[in-house]
Write a structure and sequence with these properties.
The chain is of the alpha+beta class. The protein is built from 14 helices and nine strands. It folds into two domains: about 60 residues, Orthogonal Bundle (434 Repressor (Amino-terminal Domain)); about 250 residues, no CATH class.
């Protein structure tokens, strides 16, 4: 396909249904409708200035046009210097905006290939989420501080608002998650590891976080049984699959009004993002193929579902029992 025609196809897919592409082109480029039609049909080539103006308006990467049929893919990555925690607040504000914009879209959906528990499930539990940030901080920073010292430096009221917004937005977005029996393992290993390093000044912190992990599992089981999440009386579907084999990649696909974005998780919390059409389609196909080979937990018998969640709780309780003996 000619790059200019491809560009306008991508632009059209980003429009809400009540907008006409020609009208938007007229407004953005300040040209007559006849001139806009000639550009859309490819009879008049866009100038570089026009292409840049339109790409910014529609949020279309020029690289995605240039490399449409190549193996090159453009990813967005925001590096985080955790020597200044304001960078983290800004990053989380961006995450709030992402989830909020999805939740307010007419057509919306989110997919998780969960090597680790998706972040939105953590956010209702402040101590658990703060611990997750702490482990991220320790993994990329040479400062050897305790969990308590780290938390004392944070703007807790601001973070509480951020986490609440993410959780509320997620509960309004129809979602599909693919787990394995080991998706729970990363958070448990982190708790055990930092416990052995004596990173907690208060002995009650570890049991508290374990209890919050149990509550998190209760929430997910409830969503799975009901096949829905709820926010202020409104519901969004929730589908959960259990893959028979371990997952090797942690992917998230967000869909909103024809715009698909895939993220690959990095460094516990951060990630890289791309809207490359081929890549997003390939990842979605891989996810859906995995679903066909997986156990649909909502559709499974109550016995199979109970067995899965009980095995998770047993792992958490074993760790909790270990921490209780340390008190």
């Amino acid at each position: 396909m000619h790059p200019q025609k491809l560009f306008f196809e991508m632009a059209k897919n980003k429009l809400l249904s009540h907008y006409r592409l020609v009208d938007v082109i007229c407004d953005v480029l300040n040209v007559a409708s006849d001139s806009a039609y000639r550009r859309i049909r490819g009879e008049k080539e866009l100038t570089l200035t026009e292409l840049i103006t339109l790409s910014r308006h529609f949020g279309i990467s020029l690289d995605s046009i240039i490399n449409y049929e190549s193996n090159n893919i453009l990813f967005k990555y925001t590096p985080l210097d955790l020597n200044d925690m304001n960078n983290y607040y800004t990053y989380m504000d961006d995450l709030v905006n992402l989830f909020d914009s999805i939740s307010k879209s007419r057509e919306k959906e989110i997919y998780f290939m969960a090597l680790d528990i998706p972040v939105a499930h953590f956010t209702p539990f402040l101590d658990l989420t703060l611990f997750k940030i702490y482990t991220w901080f320790r993994s990329v920073n040479k400062l050897q501080i305790t969990y308590d010292e780290f938390v004392s430096q944070l703007d807790i009221p601001r973070l509480s608002v951020i986490y609440e917004k993410i959780g509320n937005a997620y509960n309004q977005i129809p979602s599909t998650e693919i787990w394995t029996k080991n998706t729970i393992v990363p958070i448990l290993r982190l708790l055990d590891y930092y416990s052995e390093l004596n990173c907690f000044e208060k002995k009650e912190t570890l049991p508290l976080i374990c209890h919050q992990v149990l509550q998190l599992v209760d929430n997910i089981e409830k969503y799975t049984v009901k096949e829905e999440k709820e926010h202020r009386g409104k519901t969004a579907f929730f589908r959960m699959y259990l893959s028979p084999v371990d997952i090797t990649n942690d992917f998230m696909i967000t869909k909103r009004d024809g715009i698909n974005v895939t993220s690959i998780k990095l460094y516990t919390i951060n990630g890289i993002f791309t809207s490359n059409e081929y890549f997003c389609s390939e990842v979605e196909k891989w996810m859906k193929d995995t679903m066909t080979k997986s156990l649909f937990l909502s559709g499974a018998s109550a016995r199979e579902r109970f067995k899965f969640f009980q095995e998770i709780r047993n792992r958490i309780n074993n760790l909790l029992e270990k921490f209780e003996k340390l008190k």
